[in-house]
Specification:
281 residues, alpha+beta, 4-stranded antiparallel beta sheet, 23% strand, binds flavin-adenine dinucleotide
């Protein structure tokens, strides 16, 4: 916890009320670079990676894909937005479904900015998402976001691309139910998120975070991301933490919520030492 004076030393632009929380080890990475390095290390160690190979169905430990069949002794399901669908084929993820939430960012365009650090608002504990914040990328680009807009199908990144009718009907059904029963204040969340489609409203949120950052310079939308958020269909509540299910045949990583990228190496170690060893032994 730091006082205003210390905050000014770190970034005189950062705005707060009386005190602030400072996390000196927070940092940015280039995720593409991390993944590409990981890929080359794994290939060096003899791991075979089959890209563009979609798992369509699994029965009796045979995985049916668009590129043929694979037999497996043990399956680890880390399929993000589709992890629940795969888990269900093994009898797991009961009473759970992924409800996708899209995260859009606005990028501070042409002008030079003077922000020196990431700046976050205090999170709303009702949601598993952080509020709209400033992110500095590795190449010092400034981003504002992400939003938490309810999406209507799993890969609802832009327009009607990757539209899936079955997913649409299922997701609309649950989103309407959440809206009707106003579970975890979903109505308020949905309305406040829809307002963020209006760029003016969205950039006004940036004013709460800093003194001297020109809101009008947030002029470019960047590629959105979609959160694979698990909903408990019985309680109509969002799951707030990682969920791991499995048996001697398979292990399913459900609800790898943010910051799942940051913790991925530590989490993988934990899975291997704590979960996999015990299940396979
Ligand atoms: C807007 C936004 C901002 C975020 N910010 C941060 C952050 O600042 N820090 C952080 O740590 N995390 C952040 N996250 C969260 C992080 O990106 C995710 O938690 C993380 O990517 C989850 O990793 P994963 O491997 O479980 O799933 P994914 O990264 O989604 O990977 C799943 C993989 O499975 C594949 N797949 C899916 N279905 C099939 C199938 N049927 N057959 C074959 N392959 C399949 C997909 O193609 C994909 O490659 C953010 C997420 C979003 C959306």
């Amino acid at each position: 916890m730091i006082e205003l004076n210390r905050l000014k030393e770190i970034d005189q632009n950062a705005k707060t009320y009386q005190k602030a929380l400072y996390s000196p080890t927070t940092a940015s990475v280039d995720p593409k670079l991390v993944c590409s390095k990981l890929k080359s290390i794994l290939i060096e160690q003899g791991v075979q990676i089959n890209f563009s190979t979609k798992c369509k169905r699994i029965k009796n430990n045979i995985i049916y894909t668009n590129k043929g069949q694979y037999a497996c002794k043990f399956l680890i399901n880390a399929a993000g937005l589709y992890a629940d669908k795969i888990a269900k084929q093994f009898g797991f993820a009961k009473n759970r479904i992924i409800i996708p939430f899209r995260g859009n960012y606005l990028v501070y365009g042409s002008k030079k900015h003077s922000i020196k650090t990431h700046i976050y608002p205090v999170p709303n504990l009702l949601n598993p998402f952080l509020g709209v914040h400033y992110t500095l990328t590795v190449n010092n680009k400034l981003k504002l976001g992400p939003t938490s807009t309810p999406a209507f199908w799993r890969e609802n990144y832009k327009g009607l691309s990757r539209f899936n009718l079955q997913e649409f009907l299922q997701i609309i059904y649950y989103e309407s139910k959440l809206f009707l029963f106003n579970s975890f204040n979903f109505r308020r969340l949905a309305i406040s998120e829809i307002k963020k489609y209006n760029r003016k409203y969205f950039v006004r949120l940036a004013k709460h975070l800093s003194h001297n950052c020109d809101p009008t310079s947030f002029d470019t939308w960047s590629k959105p991301g979609i959160r694979a958020q698990l909903l408990n269909t019985k309680t109509l509540k969002l799951e707030m933490d990682f969920i791991i299910e499995g048996d001697s045949n398979s292990l399913h990583i459900l609800n790898a919520v943010s910051p799942a990228f940051t913790c991925s190496f530590a989490f993988a170690k934990y899975l291997v030492s704590e979960k996999l060893k015990k299940t396979i032994d």
